[in-house]
Amino acid sequence: MTDLLKISGLHASIDADGKPKEILRGVDLVIPPGEVHAIMGPNGCGKSTLSYVLAGREEYDVTSGSVTFMGRDLLDMEPEERAAAGLFLAFQSPVELPGVNNANFLRTAVNAVRRARGEAELDAVGFLKAVRAATKNLSMSDDMLKRSVNVGFSGGEKKRNEVLQMTMLQPTLAILDETDSGLDVDALRIVAEGVKNLRSPKFSALVITHHQRLLDYLGPDRIHVMARGRIVRSGGPELAKQIDAEGYASFLAEAA
């Protein structure tokens, strides 16, 4: 079986006051099709940077290493090409887009991806039927579709809106960058169920989180611990339990 995502020896830096600051220091990671993987690690270890590099944020400079996605060189693809190929990033802090209608934004994004995949675009009726079914499953009010993207949304509403986008776009690989941060128990469960509802042999996810509760909901196939810019250990649920009991001290020592 061909790996969906394969990261080998990935190094990346960002400009800091005119000097490159290395953040990723040799990340190795493989995600097979149909699996949900989680990354945990202390603040500043490079988790979000990894998600941004995979999504194609231009302020990050990849200095060495390789990333293949569905057999293609991901690093050679523009951000919009990555999205069309099936990569989706849910942000830790979703941006607000004043004046941009949520429903129009979502329909434009969905049809752009469908065109790129050679699929028929959704007309207004077909889109509304699909999006209303999705909002119902996420306990979202249809009124949110009439508002500007994320403007005036609570933290939980923003995260649900990200999961709504993911549900409608049907990505092959979803990267969730601490989508669970700032959520109460009910919102966390709804977000987790949104991810679980997409699980299939054609859907994989990379979930970046600090919280074992989300992992309890999702039941990831594998957990990876990142420290000092690289993945230092991979395993099962026992890793999350160890972190919950002991913190990251032993993992930081391992990465030193």
Quick structural summary:
Residues 5-253 form the ABC transporter domain. With 256 residues, the chain is of the alpha/beta class. 38% of the residues lie in helices and 29% in strands.
Provide a descriptive summary of the structure in words:
Helix content is 38%, strand content 29%. With 256 residues, it is α/β, with parallel strands linked by helices. The protein has one domain: 3-Layer(aba) Sandwich (Rossmann fold), CATH 3.40.50. It has a 6-stranded mixed sheet, with helices on both faces. A 4-stranded antiparallel sheet has the order 2-1-4-5. A hairpin with a 2-residue loop joins strand 11 (222-227) and strand 12 (230-235). It is globular, with a radius of gyration of 18 Å.
Could you list some keywords that capture this structure?
12 strands, 4-stranded antiparallel sheet, 9 helices, alpha/beta, 6-stranded mixed sheet, Rossmann fold, 256 residues
Secondary-structure blueprint:
Elements lengths: L4 E12 L2 E13 L4 E5 L6 H9 L4 E10 L2 E2 L5 H7 L1 E4 L6 E5 H15 L7 H14 L10 E2 L5 H15 L3 E5 L7 H12 L7 E5 L3 H7 L3 E6 L2 E6 L1 H10 L2 H7 L1
Parallel strand pairs: 3-10, 3-11, 6-9, 9-10
Antiparallel strand pairs: 1-2, 1-4, 4-5, 7-8, 11-12
Gyration radius, to the nearest Å? 18 Å
**Helix-and-strand structural type:** alpha/beta
> What's the shape?
globular
Biggest sheet: strands side by side, in what order? 6-9-10-3-11-12
Counted beta strands = 12
| CATH superfamily annotation | P-loop containing nucleotide triphosphate hydrolases
Query: Which regions have little confidence, pLDDT < 50, spanning 5+ residues?
Result: none
How many helix segments? 9
Mean pLDDT: 90
Q: What characterizes the major β-sheet?
A: 6 strands, mixed
CATH architecture grouping: 3-Layer(aba) Sandwich
Helix content: 25-40%
SSE pattern, N- to C-terminal: EEEHEEHEEHHEHEHEHEEHH
The CATH C-level class name: Alpha Beta
CATH topology: Rossmann fold
Distance between the termini: 34 Å
Strand content: 25-35%
How many domains? The number is: 1
GO molecular function, one term: ATP hydrolysis activity
Domain ABC transporter: 5-253
Keywords: ATP-binding, Nucleotide-binding
Family: Belongs to the ABC transporter superfamily. Ycf16 family.
